[in-house]
Amino acid sequence: MNVERIDAYRWRIPRQGGMRTEGLIFADEQLMRDLEGDQAVQQLANVAHLPGIVGPAIAMPDIHWGYGFPIGGVAAFDEAEGVVSPGGVGYDINCGVRLLATPLTLAEARPRLRQLVDTLYATIPSGVGASRSDVRLARDDLEQVLRQGARWAVEQGYGDPADLEAIEANGTLPDADPDCVSDRAKERGKSQLGTVGSGNHFVEVGYVAERYDERVADRLGLGAATVTVFIHSGSRGLGYQVCDDHLDLMLKAAAKYGIALPDRQLCCAPLGSAEGKRYWGAMNAAANYAFANRQLMAHYARRALGTVFGEATAQRSRLVYDVCHNIAKHETHEVAGARTRVCVHRKGATRAFPPRHAELAPQFRDIGQPVLIPGDMGRYSYVLVGTAGAFTETFGSTCHGAGRRLSRHKAKQLARPRNILKELEAQGILIRAATRATVDEEMPEAYKDVARVVDVVDRAGIGKKVAQLKPVGVVKG
Amino acid sequence: MTPYRFVPHTADVAAELRAESERGLYQAGVDALRNLLVGTSPVRSLEQRPIAVRGTDPTERLVRFLGDVLYLYDTERFLPDRVLPLGVSGEPFDPARHHALREVKAVTYHGAAVVPDGDGYRATLVFDV
User: Fold this and answer.
1) Nearest CA-CA distance, residue B21 and chain A, Å
2) Would residue A400 show up in a list of annotated catalytic residues for this protein?
3) How would CATH label the architecture of B4-13+25-128?
4) Does B100 contact A92 at a Cβ distance shorter than 8 Å?
5) What's chain A's average pLDDT?
6) Quick one: closest CA in A to B93, which residue?
7) A167 bridge partner residues
8) Residues forming beta bridges with residue A308, ordered by sequence position
9) pLDDT 10s digits, A423-447
10) What stretches of A218-353 adopt beta strand conformation (E)?
C-alpha cells in the first residue's frame, strides 16, 4: 500500500484501484511504524471504495485492525448516494465513556479509597454474565429504553435531569425504532442494563493529575486533584446482537443493490433503502440502550460515593460529559464549500465539535465539546475539547483511546510470572476484577501509550488537551 | 488432526479450525468457543438445544451456528459440549464447577473463511471479546 507523508502528523493514501477518494491518517512516525504489518491501512483504503463517500476516509492515531472498518476510522457519506455499514459502527454500538467529577480531592478521598472501590465493585455488576436483579425490565420498559435512552433512566430516578445536557445528543437519539430490534437482541439486553460487561470495559476512580488549560478545566469541574469516576461501557449483548442480525441482511443488500465490496465485512446498504433504514432504526435504538446503561452505572456510582463519603458527595458529583465512540450520525458539515448533510460513521473515534456549534449545550458553547479519552489502567486518561480544526478536517472527530499493542494471549504470557494486581497496588492503584485473566489481558503494557495518541491529535489541531487523569482504583469485568 | 488452535490477533481472539466435515468444523468451533468461555472446566452433555443450520455458504453457516451457540450461553447460560445433527448438547453453567473466563461479544465474519483442505476443511474465525 502506497502511503505518502504530508507533514509531521498527517499521511495520505493516494487514490488507487477502485478507491473513490483518498485516505488520510493522523499519526506520528512512531505510530506509523507500529502500523507496519497491520491490515488497518488496507482496511482504510477499502473504506474509500464505498459508494457515496464524501471527503477522505480518515484514520485517527489509535487506528488498528477492526471488523470491516479499522478501529479509529471515520467516514462520511452523502445522504442521497451513500451507504450505512454495521462494520463502520462496530459490534458494541455506542460503546462510549462517561466522566463524573466529585467534590473530593485525592487527599480527602485517599483514606476511604479501598472502601469506595469495593463498594463500586459490589454496586455495579461486572464480568461474565453480569446482570442486575434490581433492574428487571418489562417489555414495555425496554421499548422505552430503546426509544428514550438516558432520558428514560432519568425519568425513572436514575440521575439528575441536568445530566442530560452533558451527554452527546442529550442521551436520546430520535431515530431509534425498537420494532427494528430483534427479539433475540431484546432477550440479550433485558437483564444487562446498568452493568459493565468485561474485556476493556471498566469503572475507574481517578484524579486530575495535570491541567493543560486551567480555564476550561475549571469550567468542567476538573480542579487540581479532583477525584473523578470514569465509566467505559456500551450497549452490551443487545448491541452485539443488533450488529450480528444486520450483517446478514447487509450482505444480501450489498448484492441486491450492486455494491462492489472489496471486503465482505464492509457489507452495507444505501442509506435510503429499506435495509439501510432498518439498520438505522435498530442501531439508534441500541445506542439509546447504551446511553441508558451508562446513566444507570453513573447513578450507582453516585450511590457508592454516597455510601462511602456521604449523601452530599453523591449529590455534588457532576456529570462532566458522556460521549459515544462507536456510532453513525446524520450531521451537517462543510463539503466543497457548501453546508451538506452527511452520515458520519465513527468507529473507535469520538465526536469533537468546536466552540459555538449549535448542537452543544449552552455550558459548552464557548469551550467546545468535552472529549474523553481513556488510556490503560496503569497510566492515565485524558480530557480534551473539540476544535475548529476537527470540524474542518475530520468531520468533527478525534481519537478514542490507546489501542491494543499486544494480543490477549501475549499479554497473559507476559503477566503469568508476575502479579499485576500487586504491581498496580504498589503504584497506588487498587484493582477489583472478576478474574485474574481479565487483569492479565488488560495489563498496562498491553496498550499503546495514550499520551502519544493524544499528543498527535493535539498537535494536529483535531482536539485540544485540557487535563490528564491518573487512576487510583479500577473495577474490571 | 488438532481440531482447533488459537492464533495471534491483537484486538480479539482468532482461531483456526480443522475437520473432516462441515459438522466437524462446528464441533471444533464449539470447542474453541467453550474454551474461551470457561477454559477447561468440564462440560457434560445433560441437555439438548435445537439449532437450525442457516446460511448460503459454509462460512456463513459456521459463523451463524456458533453465533446461535453463543446466544444460548448469553441468554440461558447454556454451555455447549457436543454438536448433534439438529443442535447441541451441554449443560447449564454451574458456578461450582465452571470457571467463567470472559465475555465473548460475537462470532464475527472478520477474516472468516471455510476452505477445503485435503480430505476435509480448514476455517479461520475471529471471536470479538
Assistant:
1) 24
2) yes
3) 3-Layer(bab) Sandwich (3.55)
4) no
5) 95
6) A129
7) A322
8) none
9) 999 999 999 998 888 899 999 999 9
10) 226-233, 269-270, 318-324, 326-335, 338-347, 350-351
